[in-house]
From TrEMBL:
Protein name from the UniProt record: EGF-like domain-containing protein
Lineage top rank: taxon: Eukaryota
Gene3D superfamilies in alphabetical order: Tie2 ligand-binding domain superfamily
Regions crossing the membrane: 101-124
Keywords from the named record: Membrane, Transmembrane, Transmembrane helix
Length: 144
């Protein structure tokens, strides 16, 4: 981007030089690389935002992520080594019950209802057969 008054380039953060085509050198950051990395950084800092590099990653943690033990710990919705990859947030836990478990419980309940219904039918049929057999006098069957 150029200044419309003097024609000089206005560099984005992390770039410097007359035509903004040079990346900031080690230890500097910001537009035109005019800012110095914080003294608290164990190694270098990010040339765009001045945040300390995270471990061996040649970048700082982005999008609200924080550096813990040399690795970026990303907030919900972001992932990747430097938290720049958008990911679907993890849905809240349902207390350990998954859809598969619920489906299995429904199927078992239906099977139990079917078996129970069949037992009632069989018991009823058996009872009616027993009643029918008791009401028949075997002498009547064989004496004919």
């Amino acid at each position: 981007m150029c200044d419309i008054v003097n024609g000089m380039c206005i560099c984005s953060s992390g770039l410097g030089g007359k035509y903004c085509n040079q990346t900031c050198s080690s230890g500097t950051w910001g537009p035109d690389c005019l800012k110095r990395c914080p003294s608290t950084c164990p190694s270098q800092c990010d040339t765009q935002d001045g945040a300390c590099y995270c471990g061996s990653l040649m970048s700082s943690c982005k999008n609200g992520g924080s550096c813990k033990s040399g690795k970026c710990k990303c907030i919900s919705g972001y992932g990747g080594p430097d938290c720049t990859t958008q990911v679907a947030p993890v849905p809240p836990s349902t207390g350990g019950t998954s859809g598969g478990v619920i489906a299995a419980a429904v199927i078992v309940s239906l099977l139990c209802a079917c078996v129970f219904g069949l037992l009632i039918y069989v018991c009823y049929f058996k009872k009616s057969v027993e009643i029918s057999l008791k009401s028949i006098d075997p002498r009547q069957i064989f004496n004919k």
